[in-house]
Design a protein that fits this description.
homodimer, alpha/beta, seven-stranded mixed beta sheet, 13 helices, globular
């Protein structure tokens, strides 16, 4: 079992190990004075772990109520959020009680946002059950819901009291979702750790499962370092967007249904690294190393969408921040920086 | 013109004076780097001041868009909030732009909440146009919307960049709303300032209008002191609830439509002070002084609702905080403290 301590405006531990869900009550008891808990989950995850979490909490003498919504990104909306609020009032959840987000990124984002806003904020604990949520959305305090016109447009910064990453939960994760999470794992190696990148390059989608505790700990530690340096997303945190600018355009092209987030990020990383190598902005062979690594995890590294179309979508997205755009470039595997480009420079860079 | 500086997690000035709305652009330019502004208002206030605000902002070279919703508490809901979010995306409002809340408490609360959550937060400026909003909701950083089952159940702490209290706006305020605001003004005198209380007791609803700049400055300064000591509402800030516990029960009894907030608070202050005097918890004559003052501003100080019914409603509300209840008592006009009572003690106290 590993513990990564995060020092944000509110400090908390990320515990990474096997079998944490079954004993979650013991861990949670240590971090909150709450006596009543609302466990929020989706139908897929609730079926697998809802009863186990409830049992563990009740063993500690806690009151427990459970709210379950349909799985999928479509649930990360204001209608489900309002249902959660109503559920909390009906179950007399107060400011001194606690929410538990049991599930993947959608559950974590919307539950965290409910915890940030219901009664102007109460405690919450993250129990991420997907690889993507364990390495990404469970750390950093970003919570959100989607609007009909865009993802994550409404949200708040809200740090959890505790994050429990149960490796065992990944045993029940469909292969497809596991691959998706590996996209973000490779990203962490690329932006901050040649050591992690080398481990990934020496394993594959099967063998990596034997060392997940170490892998997830490394990813969470990297995200922790970045987030501690930039809690409110004003600088350093941009590095986490490596592969995301073009990746988001790929996702958008398929209306967020044709390709999963991690796979789109994989494509985005490969595209941007190819451009960077053409312009001598990174060491020779970086793209080869990256694509070889992506292949090991069955992740894509190219797309049929014309790159000019993707670039247009980027600008449409990013011009929101003014007349320039920040692109994250890895000068080698394990080292990244943000490069500010004018719109013209960006279009020329992308080709 | 007076300025009260508030030092919260984000510091800002409350400017109190006559004619501020017409030159709001100049003031706002000094506190934000934003170039685009979304002015949120209700139909009543927009009619009176919307064009004036837009003109002043445009004189500074700013882009302006305006969102107007129907006046009244019923608009402080998630449906109107979602309309605001959609309006902001349609008008390409970004994280570096700014919202302006132009109106009373409802406008201030929902606009502040939108500013706290849209894109995880952007700048906002309060231009409160009612007496109640100028002395109460515009200072302190509490933002919220209502749920069908209760008021202010969803919200966030979000400090504005600036508050402009234009005394001239009170000239157009219906007499009924002016009286309502005076309920909270008397409260400030009672909890923290015998000097303010004496001034109020030496004036009436007509003469007070000649010294509003001084009166509002005193109220805002008191609220500032209390809020600075307790930004996130964990202690001192409770004093602001003087008269509110029973007052809320009165409002609730009439389904929040039969009596206005300030009037209900007036009744609550009188009821609690009567009980306190009976139990020798305050100086003799305190209730007489309070009721005499309330009369001067045409505020009520009694109710036909049986006090046992009000007490039950209090408990239903406050047992949410555990097995005890905090009651604010003024030992004399200008001095207050919070007294923790068990449920039994409270019922005995109320009689």
């Amino acid at each position: 079992m590993n513990i990564v301590s995060v020092k944000a405006s509110q400090s908390y531990d990320v515990v990474i190990g096997r079998g944490l869900i079954a004993s979650c009550g013991e861990y949670i008891k240590k971090v909150t004075a709450a006596k009543s808990f609302a466990v929020v989950s989706d139908d897929n995850v609730d079926k697998l772990y809802g009863d186990i979490v409830e049992k563990s909490l009740k063993e500690q003498g806690f009151e427990v109520c459970r709210f379950v919504f349909p799985h999928g990104e479509a649930s990360k909306c204001s209608a489900v959020l309002n249902d959660i609020y109503m559920f909390l009032t009906e179950n007399h959840i107060t400011r001194s009680d606690c929410l538990i987000a049991l599930g993947g990124g959608v559950v974590g984002d919307i539950t965290g946002y409910a915890a940030a806003t219901y009664l102007r904020g109460l405690d919450y604990v993250q129990v991420p059950t997907s690889l993507l949520a364990q390495v990404d959305s469970s750390v950093g305090g970003k919570t959100a819901i989607d609007l009909p016109c865009g993802k994550n447009l409404v949200g708040a910064f809200k740090q959890p009291k505790l994050v429990l990453c149960d490796i065992a939960a990944l045993d029940t994760l469909p292969r497809d979702f596991f691959i998706d999470g590996m996209g973000e794992v490779v990203k962490y190696g690329m932006i901050k750790s040649s050591e992690l990148f080398d481990i990934l390059s020496g394993n594959d989608i099967d063998s990596i499962k034997n060392i997940l505790e170490d892998i997830i700990t490394r990813c969470v530690s990297i995200k922790r370092d970045v987030v501690e340096a930039d809690e409110f997303d004003k600088g350093e945190r941009m590095l986490l967007n490596f592969g995301h600018t073009l990746g988001h355009s790929v996702e958008q092209h398929y209306n967020y249904t044709g390709i999963s987030h991690g796979r789109a990020v994989a494509v985005g990383m490969a595209l941007i690294t190819g451009r960077a190598e053409n312009k001598d902005l990174c060491a020779d062979g970086t793209l080869d190393k990256l694509t070889a690594c992506l292949k090991r995890y069955e992740l894509p590294f190219s797309t049929d969408i014309p790159v000019s179309k993707l670039a247009d979508a980027c600008l449409n997205d990013k011009k929101r921040a003014g007349g320039s755009i920040y692109i994250i470039i890895c000068s080698e595997c394990g080292k990244s920086s943000a490069v500010k480009m004018s719109i013209d420079e960006f279009m020329q860079f992308i080709g």
